[in-house]
Amino acid sequence: MGQIRVYGGRPLQGTVRISGAKNAVLPVMVASLLTEEPCYLQEVPRLLDVVTCCHLLRSLGTEISWQGREMVLSTPRLAGIEAPYEYVRQMRASFLVAGPLLARAGRAVVALPGGCAIGSRPVDQHLKGLAAMGANIEVAHGLVRAHCRRLRGASIYLDLPSVGATENLIMAASLADGVTVIENAACEPEVVDLANFLTAMGARVSGAGTRTVRIEGVRRLSGGRHTVIPDRIEAGTYLVAVAATGGRVRLENVIAEHLTAVTAKLQELGARISATGSTLVIEREPGGYPASNVRALPYPGFPTDLQPQMAALLTQAEGVSVITDNVFDSRFLYTEELRRMGANIRNEGRSAIIGGPTPLTGAQVRATDLRAGAALVIAGLVAEGETEIGQIHHLERGYEDLVGKLSSLGAVIGYTAPKSHFLGA
Ligand code: UD1
Question: Are 188 and 229 within 8 A, CB to CB?
Fold first, then answer.
């Protein structure tokens, strides 16, 4: 199993290009199931989750070619209607095929995701919406079996603004008979990106990015071309890393307005950040910064996918900081690992309480999930000595060439055991 070694104590300097967004590319790839025609995607990041999504889609009949950042997907005929547990277990976004399969084939069999390292993650809102659109749904033996003649438009109120449920239902509604209105929809930029791609395919979607999304179903969708938006979580991770180590870094290929909650918080902590076009520059001198409270919320609030990285940063702040996650119920497994590096951090319900500043020392730790792994890399960059991070396949799920990019910024970081072979050299 792969490992990364980091030596701390160096400021980050230089330029880094942000990749296409993991959480945008996965639903967009899945949306290609809605048409027999080819779909052309640009800015596809080389990530394990994208590889997993390719395996899943190929098992359903999709032909895929992927060169550099370009991917072409086409599904002239569906070869299957099932997403087995093997895929859903590796990547929960696999559940997104339920809506498109039902819309195109009238049938879908998708394994139920179990719990995971960041808390319970039910799919009741996905199922409620599909049922409202006329699907018959049966859950047994760990599988969701759904069938319908043709989905029909419906009014759906989500109990909470789930990103995945919003995406699944927008895709299903695109080929349904009539109008679907989703209330309390997720507003994340990745939902808007999906809606833009569907619109390029001929779908009629309005209101994406607001709490109410309206979809007028059409009889068929064509292929489409799409450039995936930059990864705001990858960009945010580099911003937090620079805030932690000090230095000056220029981020290219970013949409600054997707990062407002993050840049505002880092400015509170003394970072200087300026945006010009698709470039963001962050600068921070070494020296103390005040404790701060962070509350992870649905977009446009502070992203839950950046709260572990913020915890690593706040171990160096002066005073007591509190991080509360209002999106996932137990996303704090990483605190155990940070404690092994000397952090004064404890969990209390949905919060982590951090006393700082505490000097961190390099240790052997393991990435318990993707963003926990990123938090440990940041902790390693500020720690004295060597940090060895195990289970790095989690990092490879969502960060393209993390080691290469950080090395180019002057970090002393490398693999001690090989990265996953399918991500290439
Ligand atoms: C997506 C992102 C993930 C991010 C999360 C929240 C992808 C591939 N993943 O995950 O990186 O952390 O949004 O921004 O885009 N919930 C229910 N019932 C449901 C669905 C969700 O109770 O049917 C709950 C979940 O347990 C969780 C909360 O809603 O507590 C948010 O989940 P959701 O927005 O659905 O996240 P994902 O789409 O799985």
Answer: no
Is any atom of ligand 1 closer than 6 Å to the C-beta of 391?
no
* The two three-digit tokens of residue 199, written as one number: 């619109």
List, for residues 50-85, the tens digit of each pLDDT value: 999 999 999 999 999 999 999 999 999 999 999 989
Closest CA to 158 of 150, 167, 149: 167
Does the beta carbon of 144 lie inside 6 Å of ligand 1? no
State whether the beta carbon of 165 lies less than 6 angstroms from ligand 1: yes
Percent of the chain topping pLDDT 70:
96
Q: Is 310 in the pocket of ligand 1 (CB under 6 A)?
A: no
Residue nearest to atom 17 of ligand 1 (CA): 122
Could you tell me which residues come within 8 angstroms of residue 243 by beta carbon, excluding any fewer than 6 positions away?
266, 269, 271, 282, 284, 289, 313
Lowest mean pLDDT among 2-16, 32-46, 112-126, 228-242: 112-126
Q: Are residues 130 and 158 in the same domain?
A: yes
Q: Whose C-alpha lies nearest to ligand 1, atom 5? A: 163
Measured in Å, how far apart are the chain's first and last C-alpha atoms?
A: 17
Residue 121 has pLDDT above 90, yes or no: no
Q: How many domains does the chain have?
A: 2
Question: Are 209 and 265 part of one and the same domain?
Answer: no
Q: What is the spatial distance between Cα 264 and Cα 364, in angstroms, rounded to a whole number?
A: 33
Q: Is residue 68 part of a domain?
A: yes
pTM: 0.97
**Does 425 have pLDDT greater than 60?**
no
pLDDT at 114 over 70: no
Which domain does 253 fall in, by range?
A: 4-19+230-415
How many helices (H) does the chain have, and how many strands (E)? 14, 24
Per the annotation, the verdict on 116 as an active-site residue is yes
Of the candidates 39, 116, 148, 187, the residue annotated as catalytic is 116
